[in-house]
Amino acid sequence: MTSAHIQKVRQRPLLFLDVDGPLIPFGSPAGPSSATAPATATTAPRDQGNPLLARLDPGIGRRLLSLGCHLVWATTWMEEANEVVAPILGLPRLPVLDRPDTGPEEGPRGLHWKTRALVERAEGRPFIWVDDEIGPMDHLWTDAAHPGPSLLHEVDPTRGLTDTDFVALAAWCRSIRPT
Ligand SMILES: [Mg+2]
User: Fold this and answer.
1) pTM score, whole prediction
2) Are 132 and 41 in contact (CB under 8 A)?
3) What percent of the chain has pLDDT over 90?
4) Which residues lie in Low complexity bias regions (predicted)?
5) Is residue 33 in a domain?
6) 39 located within any domain
7) Least CB-packed of 50, 69, 130, 171 within 10 Å?
8) What is the distance in A from the centroid of ligand 1 to the CA of 65?
9) Is 142 a member of any domain?
10) How far is ligand 1, taken at its centre, from the CA of residue 110, in Å?
């Protein structure tokens, strides 16, 4: 391991954050009958009148910040995450992961569009990816292409980020902290 690489590993982790699913759960107190909600999530107008925004838990922002990571939006909401979601959660304006120019046909089958982009963005620094659409190919790609620590943390989109998720995220952050 080179000294430059050691420097990168010692930096605070990045945390790439999805919106639909982890922050806006698709379930409802009524139960799993609302499992068709994701279709609505991609078609509803994403403005202040979006009823899905009522599903945001304002307390989540503080919990995310307390992890001590550099937060980065990794979501199809793109800059709208800063304009609409961040104020509700009490988050500052965050950097946004760009959608790559490459089409899905240029990666292996099953690779999420975010995976290559966030591995490149991390540049070897430790990172967490919080999403509800992480698959086996994303783990394979990250293991092969990313030399530093990583945590691909899949969230149940019917529930969103829960206490259990935050325990796991905090434990991982502690585990990679230099002693
Ligand atoms: Mg999602």
Assistant:
1) 0.85
2) no
3) 72
4) 27-45
5) no
6) no
7) 171
8) 20
9) yes
10) 15
- Between β-strands 127-131 and 70-73, what pairing exists: parallel, antiparallel or unpaired? unpaired
Q: Determine the residue type at 124.
A: G
Handedness of CA 54, 112, 136, 122 (dihedral sign): negative
Q: What confidence score (pLDDT) does residue 120 get?
A: 95
Q: Mention every residue, 6+ apart, whose C-beta is less than 8 A from residue 152.
A: 128, 129, 131, 134, 138, 139, 142
Domain count, the chain: 1
Any idea which residue has 């979006």 for tokens? 50
Mean pLDDT score across all residues of the chain = 87
User: Can you give the CATH number for the domain in which 101 is found?
Assistant: 3.40.50
In angstroms, rounded to a whole number, what is the distance separating the alpha carbons of residues 16 and 94? 10
Angle (nearest 5°) at CA 125 between 121 and 130? 70
C-alpha to C-alpha distances, 165 to 55, 72, 107, nearest whole angstrom: 17, 18, 29
Ion ligand 1 neighbours (CB, 5 A) are 18, 20-21, 132
SS3 126: coil
For the stretch 4-62, pLDDT in tens is 666 666 789 999 999 999 999 998 654 444 444 444 444 444 456 788 999 999 999 99
